[in-house]
Amino acid sequence: AGTESFGLFSCTVNGEEREQTHRAVFRFIPRHEDELELDVDDPILVELEEDDYWYRGYNMRTGERGIFPAFYAHEVVGQARDVGGLKRNPCWVERFNVQFLGSVEVPYHQGNGILCAAMQKIATTRKLTVHLRPPASCDLEITLQGIKL
């Protein structure tokens, strides 16, 4: 089993030290020359966000550059900025307005992997039905107690 610490990767790009900005959450197999192969958990430096939900970036594990779909990677927060987040007030709530794509049952919580698996499953089934039922908008609440939709 891997360790639980998510240390951030950094590398030297064009002579300057850069920290990873994103982490790959799904495997992405390129179909075109300019696409970037991703493996789950790859450290990525996103250099440009294209307007059609594609990112242009650098895979710090492979040293390759290219474009990939934005939802294949999640933004990571640097250690320095993260310190404040650890002492969160117990009443802390974050609200997001999201589009509801579907729900899925998963076994009792097992960290990030379980969320990624659930999201991938929902996204896959959703692709087939999106034209029949456009997503409804709803509120996602994240608290220290859990996630509520």
TrEMBL record:
One of its GO terms (molecular function) is MAP-kinase scaffold activity. GO terms for biological process: JNK cascade; regulation of JNK cascade. Signal peptide: none annotated. Pfam families: PID, SH3_9. This is JIP2 protein. Belongs to the JIP scaffold family. It comes from the Eukaryota. InterPro entries: JIP1_scaffold, JIP2_SH3, PH-like_dom_sf, PTB/PI_dom, SH3-like_dom_sf, SH3_domain. Transmembrane segments: none annotated. CDD domains: SH3_JIP2. It comes from Nothoprocta pentlandii.
